[in-house]
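Sequence in, structure out. First:
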Amino acid sequence: MLSYYKGSIPIINDDPQSLSLAFPARDGDGHSIGRGYVPRDYSVYPEAMFDSPSQMQLIPESEWDARYDEQEAQQSSLEHIFLSGPGGQPRFVNLDQNGHGYCWAYSTGHSIMIKRLAMNLPLVRLNPHAAAAIIKRGADEGGWCGLSGQFARENGYAEEGTGPGQWPLHSRNLQYDTPALRASMAKYKIVENWVDLTRQVYDQNLTQQQLATQLFLNNPCPVDFNWQSHSLCAIRKVRVERGSWGTLILNSWKGWGRFGLAVYQGSKGIPDGAICTRTVAA
């Protein structure tokens, strides 16, 4: 039986019914679902190779309940910020990768948009297709959130649109990679993030405690999952019930979950790759 967080956001764990939600063949409009994360080969790159960002001050698990209760009382988490539209609607419709294997760019794009909301910056709809197409030279290929995170630090992200300095929705046409686009993209850079720069982009991760710490600090985290071959944006550490925690994620599939939201719990909530967006250009 499918379980729900706060009565409406589905929880994905090892239950077969919840896993059917994690592996749909079609989106809400009947289009093929895209993923695009390239699974990490643990036989070549064992988990022990993941090192911690050394300067992070961690929030101990003994404080998680108090942090969560404070966020609920103050309605201050990224969950609350995202769902602060009229009548509890989202501030923006979640981005849709449209069946292309660009999830690894969409997870970072969502993190920039969410962080802009948290920083009280104007809402701008970004187009992660631009970053992925430029990186992959127009090819529909998979990658990792660390790869798009690096691009966002160095170049920024494009606005969605057909005007000067914008990138049309779902296009992979490199003709739009113009000087005007690059100048516009620079307005939407990741300025500060937590990322292990001693590792390759496919090999960057955060521990569970590091991930929880950043989510309690309202820093969204692009995360990769081997089990789903997918990359998403983690926006909050949530208490499903007393003593049971999950990770609230925002997906890049149309008509999925609750406004694109679901909770990944247990083994399904442990990422194989993760970075953290701390500050974006203002």
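Second:
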Amino acid sequence: MSTNTMTPKERIGSFLGGKPIDRVPCVPLILNHAARVLGVPVSRFGSNGKVMADANAAAFRRYRQDLITVFTDTAITAEAMGTKLAFPEDRAAYVAEPCVKRPEDAESLRAPDPLKDGRLAIYVEAAQRLNEMVGGEVFVACCYPAAFTTAACLRGTEMFARDLIRNPALAHKLLKVSLEATLNLTDAICKAGAVPVPVDPVASGSVLSAKQFHEFVAPYMLPLFARIQSYGWPAMYHVCGKTRLLLDELADLKPTALSLDKVDIVLAKKQIGDRVCLMGNIKPTETFFQGTPADVENEARVLIETVGDNPCGFILASGCEIPVDTPPENIHAMMRAADTYGRKS
């Protein structure tokens, strides 16, 4: 039985404010899995703000996680700018046809209106509805692609990776308009009362060197963090994939919290834990989807014991999105582990 003495909103608010909390914050990244909780296809979840809100509220009531994380796919901003997506019935949308096939196509790109173009407005509607439904108990966060990932979706990831070397001027042109689009969406999310959380699945060490990160990612993240913090929100940042070689570059951005995926987070604690709050990183596929509740609970326990004393703070989380078909009992096991092993004395 849970012995929590704080609501999720109180816990996260106190944690970010440097005040005492009852236990370690626990944030399984429940994204499209929320559709399963409500019993709707992912395609409907990702195209209707009311359904997205209802699904996330249902997931919160089931799991009582410490932060709602609204999200559906990483190409939603690029779609509003002209990239064509494929929409499987019960999986997240993905890029089918980038809109910048030739360098000259970039000339016609414009930052979209987040309240009118594509599906961007569903995030805003979902955030507003969720704040009305459960905002007194939990903060609502909207996760959305940062400029680098949006630029990759405009051009196609493989072509964009080539542009970083062969045509950096084009890469920067795409990044500039992607930043403008991201800032506009940030404004709309903040005005809806939600916490903006940029995610960068493409800006990982699997694609970038530290030098490239410094040139093509950092200059576009710093103004985004500044915009987020101007609204009084923390600058949280999630990077997918392997980040071992990018840790110092990531810490140099000075995010409030850094959500990490495929990296030894104990090593991250030693290297940058005195500079940034760390968030992570139970394995999404191997542990949450393929493992048992005991596997999840054990991995969570080890993370709490080894990283829970991180100098700048620690948030127990999944390394990336909880797979859509993750067994609910495995998510409950993570929350139970936070209750059992994450108590603050």
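Remark: The beta strands are 26-27, 68-70, 84-86, 94-97, 140-145, 195-200, 236-242, 257-262, 277-282, 314-318.
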